[in-house]
Amino acid sequence: MSNVLLECHAIVKVFPGVRALDGVGLRLTEGSIHALLGENGAGKSTLIKVLTGVHTPNGGRLTWCGGEVHLRSPQEATRTGIGVVHQERNLIPGFSVAENITLQSPPSHRGLIDRAAMTAPALRCLGELGLDLDPDQPVRELSVAQQQLVEIAKALYTESRVLLLDEPTASLSPQEAERLFEVVRRLKARGTCVVFVSHKLEEVFAICDTVTVLRDGRSVLESSPLADHTHDDVVGLMVGRAHSATEMRPREVDTSAAPVLSFDDVSTAAGHRDISLDVRPGEIVGLYGLVGAGRSELVKAMLGLDRVTGGEIRVHGEPVRITSPRQALHRFGIGYLTENRKEEGVFLEQPIARNITVTVWKRLAKAFGFVSAREEQAVAHDLVERLGIRISGLGQNAGELSGGNQQKVSLAKWLAADTRLLIVDEPTVGVDVRTKHAFHELIWELARDGLPILLISSDLAEMITLADRVAVMADHRIRGEVDNDRDYERMSGRIIRIIHDRATPAVRPRAVEA
Predict the structure, then answer these.
(1) Domain ABC transporter spans what residues (predicted)?
(2) Which DSSP letter does residue 369 get?
(3) Which site in 90, 227, 266, 331 is 20 to 30 Å from 209, CA atoms measured?
């Protein structure tokens, strides 16, 4: 039996008016990969902060190798042997790889930092992970995946025996994620306990040994072998009810209707060539591909954020050259739900009501441009109710909401503007199972009401759940298109074959695969 490294005994953490953790138990053993699961707000982040010394618990106790410990700061947690890689990078971009790896305890000589002596330990840590990186290279020149692996190398340098990975694959391509999994397996083999926090259950079942599930601040499943549970078991524990794949009510798409949006042999400055695609009323058309395929870049070029260098884009049959997202909305009724909700989707320091009505201020404005607070609140209230956005009040700042509710606020502003075509880019990245399910239902209902939707997603299950047709992109071209029968095994096989058959010439998407 493996040795227990870190154990939580009935941990309680209370904030003003909120009992964030209520008797949580957790047992982490050496040489294991442990999944920590739960919806947004279940207590995962609070527990991670307790384990890394950011928060001091109000009750319960922590033991390390059998002895009670009190972690009063992140530095104490690091010295104990607990490391963490957060979803947001914690590196200094201008520093080298070696400087970042050794940052917490840099080698010194006569009281001065010895930069030359950083190279050897950095190379040792990189070597343990099988990474071939130049220790003198500035971190800002690395890819997102490489930066994440440098974070893990930092944990090796500080001799972490427990390593917490918070949503480690959220911004990685499938190939980069698999490379990360290889590193995680290597860490397991050397005796490290890796705690894997993720909303992607297919990854959890592929890599983890044991699982703890939190719900409403309590551990409803504690340090249990993952092999003893099915996917639906785990989802049911997370949301408090049995849950299977999203089942949408029947919806008809009139394939003979004139397209609302058409691309005809479009080329862009970003490198797209020969892009042809139609989106009809009430239809959800998916753009699927690996990271770097050019899906978001295509949409941004259409919205005037990059140059269209050839071909023709038509809206309701009329050729258009859109110069800005503002023109796209106010002249052509096109809304764009961006994947980067924190920087582009919502104003974090502004009230929810203002975020929702920002697209209709011109319509609401009275004399001298004055916008009535009463009308603003009425519009926002209707959409908050319609979308089920969980808020304390319309005056609450958007930055105080969970990621899923921020995404709903971002969607609400486009619905407020009576959008006639909606582009949805990675709508459920980083949100929990319940919120993802609710978002799928929202998108489906909008399409049932006749709204044409262009969906970009890297989540293949999400794409097969929602899209009526899937256009598969690779290397800034559409390599093929399939009608979606929503049989996951059959559809995923077809889509993946198209992605990996890059050597064949790009096919016209109107030649639909049967």
Answers:
(1) 6-241, 248-500
(2) G
(3) 90
Do 229 and 252 lie in a common domain? no
Contact 472, 501 (CB under 8 A): no
Q: Tell me the two tokens of residue 413.
A: 């502003």
Residue with tokens 């096919």: 507
pLDDT, tens digit, 9 for 90 and up, residues 448-493: 999 999 999 888 888 999 999 999 998 899 999 999 988 887 888 8
151 and 283 fall within a common domain = no
* CA gap 130, 132 in Å, rounded: 7
CB 167 within 8 A of CB 195: no
- In degrees and rounded to multiples of 5, residue 372 shows phi and psi of -70, 125
Q: In terms of residue numbers, what domain contains 506? A: 245-333+420-514
Is the pTM here over 0.70, yes or no?
A: no
As for how many domains the chain has, the answer is 2
Helix (H, G, I), strand (E, B) or coil at 297: helix
- 199 and 319 part of one domain: no
Pair 57, 97 in one domain = yes
pLDDT in tens, 177-208: 888 899 899 999 999 999 999 878 888 999 99
* Contact indicator for 134, 53 with CB cutoff of 8 Å: no
Whether residues 176 and 312 fall in one domain: no
Exposed / middle / buried, residue 214 (Cβ in 10 Å: 0-12, 13-18, 19+): buried
Q: Show which of 223, 239, 255 is a domain's final residue.
A: 239
Distance CA 121, CA 153 (A): 10
Contacts of 109 (CB under 8 A, 6+ apart): 117
Alpha helices in 349-388 (DSSP H): 352-357, 361-364, 373-387
Spatial contact of 85 and 123, defined as CB atoms under 8 Å apart: no
Residue 154 pLDDT class (50, 70, 90 cuts): confident
CB 325 within 8 Å of CB 332: no
Residue with tokens 């408090």: 240
Domain membership of residue 343 (yes or no) is: no
Q: Which segment of 89-103, 347-361, 363-377, 393-407 scores lowest on mean pLDDT?
A: 363-377
